[in-house]
Design goal:
The protein is an alpha+beta fold. It folds into two domains: 101 residues, no CATH class; 85 residues, no CATH class. The chain contains six helices and eight strands, in the order ααββββββββαααα. β6 and β7 form a beta hairpin. The longest helix is centred in the C-terminal third of the chain and has 25 residues. It is elongated. The termini are far apart. 20% of the residues are buried.
Amino acid sequence: MALDSYAGLQAALGTWADDRTDLPAADLVTLAEARLNRDLRLRRMEAEAALTLAIGERTAPLPADFLEPLGLWIDAGAGRRALRFTPAAMETQAVAAPPRSWTVDGDAIAFQSPADQGYGLVLRYLQRFSLASAAPADGTQSNWLLQHWPDAYLASGNIEAALWTQDDEQAVRWEARYADALASINRLEARSQALTTLNADAAIQLRATGRGRFDINRGY
């Protein structure tokens, strides 16, 4: 089975672990994803969600796949107004007022005071990924991480498989493979967030600019 789906990943874990058929594969994937969600911080994990703060309420529930906050705005229709993030020890007041500051409190966003009216909010956050929770439920579900970097999924799952079988040698081997996969992913992520210098033949550059360089911003 190809390593491109939830079922395929579970089958691969047994195959790579000496064709073991007794592995708790679903649990291993869950544990692998818990570690990957802790270790990866990629742009593909960023998402936005529309939230509602009801009149008189001081909290709004977080999305189920929330991992970390990136920003929060009041959606005023004609534009967004950013709200200030504060530590969890934020001072609160009982008098209703427009939301000004916010923090994460358990499974909710908490504001400095109850809302004086209803507000539409936009939360930008890091999104937790999970194959098991994705539809459909027939094992064919996949996600961007498994599609682009199946080696990270496989390595993380095989670490858990080696711990389950108490195979320390395999655990060390897969830890090294996991570290290498994450390093490669992080290097690619870093490169994608910066402009890359274009390398061209020197003669072409001289003909193009007369100065021996290519101006990426001006196109000549």
